[in-house]
C-alpha cells in the first residue's frame, strides 16, 4: 500500500475526528478537536492525513518533547482496513521524527489492547519496563467529562393502539424498509444525518465492534424511511429487555424530510411495527436538546409521559459537534406518574 500523507488543514479537522471516532480512538477524557488544534499550533507536532478521492482514509498525530518522539491517534478508516494504511501511517510518523533528528520514538497503549500491541510489535516496536505517571494541569472538568446537561422525558404506550394509523401525505412517495441488519457504515451515516442537529453523541463515540454487536442483534430492529426513493430517516426498536420494556431507541428524520408532513405517518408506522411481535409496553425518551416538536409529536402519537429527570451527556465536541443551542418549544408535559422504569438513558 502506498499512501501519500500530508499535514492536516482546517478543512480536515471534522473528517479526522469522524475517522478517529469510527476507529474507536476517541474516549471521554480526551478532546480530539483540542488535541488537533494544539498540535497544529506548535512547531514540534503535526497531524498527518491521507485522503483518497475526497475521503479521509487515515490520520495520526506525531510530535516530540525535545528528547523523544511520540505518536498518538493512529487511525485508519474501518472501511479501508487491510490495505496497509496503518503501516504506512506509522512510517510517515517515523519519517517526520527522523527528519527532525529525533533519535527515539514512544507510544502508549492499554495493556489489554492485544491486537494493537501485536500490530506495533510487527513494525519493530518493543515493550519497555517503564511506569507511566500523569497529572492533569487543568482546573475543573476537561472537555468530555460531562459538560452538557439535558432534561430527559420518558414516555410510554401501555397497550396496543386501537387508532387508525396515519396515511402518507398526498404527493410524496414513502416506503419503510427494515435493514436486517445495516452495515456499520450505513448505520453511522443514518445516525449522524438524523442526529446531527440534536446532539446525538453516544453512538458516534463507540467503536465499530460495539456498534456492530448492537445493530446485528436479532432483537434490535432498524427501519429506514425512504422519501421519493432516498433515505429520509430511521427508527430503531430494541426488544432486548423483553416484552414489558420494548424501546423505540432511536427515531428521527433527516433535515430534508422535516416539514414534509411525514413525521406522523412514520411514528404511527413504527408503533404498529413494535406491536407486530410480542409487546406489552413500548417506551421512548426525548430531551430538551431534541427537535422542538419531538415531545408533542410523541404525545399526539399516543405516548404518555411517566418520568422526567436530568442527565449529563458526553461533550458533543468529542464527536466534532458544536455545543447545543437550547430551546424546547413544547417542553411542558402532563404531571409525571410514579416511575416504573429505572436506569433510563437519553436518546443521544
Please estimate the helix content.
10-25%
CATH superfamily of the largest domain: Gcn5-related N-acetyltransferase (GNAT)
Helix count, DSSP H or I runs of 4 or more residues: 9
Beta percentage is 25-35%
Q: Name the shape in a single word.
A: elongated
Radius of gyration (Å): 23 Å
Report the span from N to C terminus.
37 Å
Mean pLDDT, rounded to whole units? 85
Enumerate the strands of the largest sheet in spatial order, edge to edge or round the barrel. 7-8-9-10-11-6-12
Succession of helices and strands: EHHEEEHEHEEHHHEEEHEHE
How many strand elements? Answer: 12
CATH fold label of the largest domain: Aminopeptidase
**Regarding CATH, which class of the largest domain?**
Alpha Beta
Low-confidence stretches: 139-146, 327-346
Question: Quick summary of this structure?
Answer:
The protein has helices spanning 13-22, 32-41, 85-98, 114-122, 184-195, 202-205, 208-215, 263-274, 294-300, and strands at residues 6-7, 45-52, 55-64, 69-76, 105-106, 148-157, 174-179, 220-227, 230-238, 246-253, 282-287, 304-313.
Write structural notes for this entry.
It is a single chain. This protein is α+β, with helices and mostly antiparallel strands and 348 residues long. It folds into two domains: 6-122, Aminopeptidase; 148-319, Aminopeptidase (3-Layer(aba) Sandwich). 25% of the residues lie in helices and 25% in strands. It is built from nine helices and twelve strands. The protein has helices spanning 13-22, 32-41, 85-98, 114-122, 184-195, 202-205, 208-215, 263-274, 294-300; strands at 6-7, 45-52, 55-64, 69-76, 105-106, 148-157, 174-179, 220-227, 230-238, 246-253, 282-287, 304-313. The strands form two sheets. Strands 7-8-9-10-11-6-12 form a seven-stranded mixed sheet, with helices on both faces. A five-stranded mixed sheet has the order 1-2-3-4-5, sandwiched between helices. It is elongated and about 75 Å long. The relative contact order is 0.14.
Amino acid at each position: 500500500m502506498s499512501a501519500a500523507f500530508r499535514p492536516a488543514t482546517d478543512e480536515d479537522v471534522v473528517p479526522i475526528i469522524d475517522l478517529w471516532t469510527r476507529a474507536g480512538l476517541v474516549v471521554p477524557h480526551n478532546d480530539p478537536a483540542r488535541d488537533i488544534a494544539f498540535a497544529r499550533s506548535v512547531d514540534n507536532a503535526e497531524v498527518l492525513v491521507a485522503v483518497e478521492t475526497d475521503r479521509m482514509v487515515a490520520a495520526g498525530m506525531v510530535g516530540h518533547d525535545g528528547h523523544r518522539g511520540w505518536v498518538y491517534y493512529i487511525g485508519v478508516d474501518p472501511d479501508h482496513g487491510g490495505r496497509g494504511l496503518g503501516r504506512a501511517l506509522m512510517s510517515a510518523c517515523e519519517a517526520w521524527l527522523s527528519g527532525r533528528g529525533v533519535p527515539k520514538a514512544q507510544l502508549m497503549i492499554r495493556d489489554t489492547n492485544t491486537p494493537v500491541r501485536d500490530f506495533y510489535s510487527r513494525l519493530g516496536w518493543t515493550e519497555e519496563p517503564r511506569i507511566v505517571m500523569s497529572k492533569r494541569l487543568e482546573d475543573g472538568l476537561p472537555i468530555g467529562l460531562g459538560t452538557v446537561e439535558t432534561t430527559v422525558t420518558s414516555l410510554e404506550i401501555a397497550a396496543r393502539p386501537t387508532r387508525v394509523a396515519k396515511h402518507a401525505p398526498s404527493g410524496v412517495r414513502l416506503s419503510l424498509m427494515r435493514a436486517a441488519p445495516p452495515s456499520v457504515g450505513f448505520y453511522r451515516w443514518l445516525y449522524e444525518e438524523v442526529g446531527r442537529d440534536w446532539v446525538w453523541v453516544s453512538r458516534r463515540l463507540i467503536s465499530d465492534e460495539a456498534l456492530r454487536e448492537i445493530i446485528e442483534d436479532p432483537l434490535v430492529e432498524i427501519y429506514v424511511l425512504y422519501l421519493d426513493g432516498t433515505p429520509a430517516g430511521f427508527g430503531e426498536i430494541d426488544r432486548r429487555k423483553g416484552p414489558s420494556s420494548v424501546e423505540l431507541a432511536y427515531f428521527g428524520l433527516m433535515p430534508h424530510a422535516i416539514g414534509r408532513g411525514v413525521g406522523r405517518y412514520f411514528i404511527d408506522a413504527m408503533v404498529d411495527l413494535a406491536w407486530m411481535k410480542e409487546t406489552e409496553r413500548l417506551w421512548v425518551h426525548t430531551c430538551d436538546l431534541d427537535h422542538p416538536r419531538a415531545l408533542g409529536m410523541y404525545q399526539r402519537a399516543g405516548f404518555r409521559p411517566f418520568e422526567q429527570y436530568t442527565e449529563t451527556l458526553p461533550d458533543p465536541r468529542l464527536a466534532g459537534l458544536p455545543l447545543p443551542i437550547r430551546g424546547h418549544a413544547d417542553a411542558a408535559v402532563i404531571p409525571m406518574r410514579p416511575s416504573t422504569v429505572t436506569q433510563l438513558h437519553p436518546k443521544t
